[in-house]
Write a structure and sequence with these properties.
Strand content: 15-25%
Distance between the termini: 48 Å
Shape: elongated
Low-confidence stretches: none
Order of helices and strands: EHHEHEHEHEEHEHEHEEEHEH
Largest sheet: 7 strands, parallel
Number of strands: 12
Number of helices: 10
Strand order of the largest sheet: 8-7-6-11-9-12-10
Mean pLDDT: 95
Helix content: 25-40%
Structural class: alpha/beta
Length: 263
């Protein structure tokens, strides 16, 4: 078994770049995953694991082989190397290099009556992670990210989604591409916006539906407002006129789930 004990090792330096630079992830088509739960969810979600690095004080080779069935390279590292690569101290001493997935709209597999979330131009990893957790909780058909501002395999997104990056079907595209996709699939889409809106709970979300949310700062672009099946609003009774995007998404999603009998 290969062992690496120096943070100056060229391979370890390349993994640091993988953590820190979107360019490195795109060039190699790989990214790092920390923790047994996250790795387990990635495998269940169809992600291919190339290499596992582990700290023997925290996890054994036997436990790793139980966790990952497919062939992969395994490297033993020491505490210094582990701390250089790991974002958290509670990831059970295991990291994996995984291959990224295609995020094409054409690769999505939707049910006959899909419920989809569309988020436009979200930038903060914490918000993206929270949205993915909500989508997983509701077992949505897909999350579509329009005009993405962040690399989806950013370690902060992987971490904040607590593995839900791997449990959701996700696709990215421009707003134009996603609107065309929804129209082609005959999916009604409801844009959450302050302008020309009606209260969200008055709408029927039992047919094929996409719920569309934007950033708190700027909201959705005009295109989403103009082309929506209906613009919708969550009535606000306090002093402010917006709420966190993941909270707004959750309210809309679970109203749709309620209408569908939580099916």
């Amino acid at each position: 078994m290969k062992q690496i004990t120096s943070v100056q090792n060229p391979f370890i330096k390349s993994l640091v770049l993988l953590q820190e630079k979107s360019k490195a992830r795109k060039q190699t088509g790989t990214f790092l995953i920390e923790g047994q739960r996250e790795i387990s969810l990635a495998i269940k979600g169809g992600y291919e694991i190339e290499t596992v690095l582990f700290l023997p004080e925290l996890i054994s080779e036997k436990e790793i082989n139980k966790l990952i069935q497919n062939p992969f390279q395994i490297i033993e590292i020491n505490k210094e190397v582990y701390q250089k690569l790991a974002y958290r101290d509670t990831t059970e001493g295991i990291l994996a290099i995984a291959k990224t997935k295609s995020l094409k709209l054409s690769d999505l597999k939707l049910s006959e009556n899909p419920l989809i979330l569309v988020v436009e131009s979200l930038e903060k990893p914490g918000n993206i992670g929270a949205v993915l957790r909500t989508a997983d909780a509701a077992n949505l058909d897909a999350v579509l990210i329009a005009n993405p501002k962040s690399d989806l395999y950013n370690p902060n997104i992987v971490r904040s989604s607590v593995g839900c990056l791997f449990t959701n079907q996700i696709a990215t595209g421009t707003s134009e591409e996603i609107i065309a996709f929804l129209k082609e699939k005959k999916i009604n889409f409801y844009s959450a916006t302050l302008q020309n809106s009606t209260s969200y709970h008055t709408q029927n979300f039992t047919a094929p539906t996409a719920l569309v949310v934007g950033t708190e700062a700027t909201g959705l672009t005009q295109q989403w407002r103009d082309e929506a099946t209906q613009n919708i609003i969550i009535p606000m009774q306090g002093e402010i006129d917006s709420m966190n995007v993941s909270v707004a998404a959750a309210i809309l999603i679970f109203e749709a789930k309620r209408q569908r009998g939580f099916n």
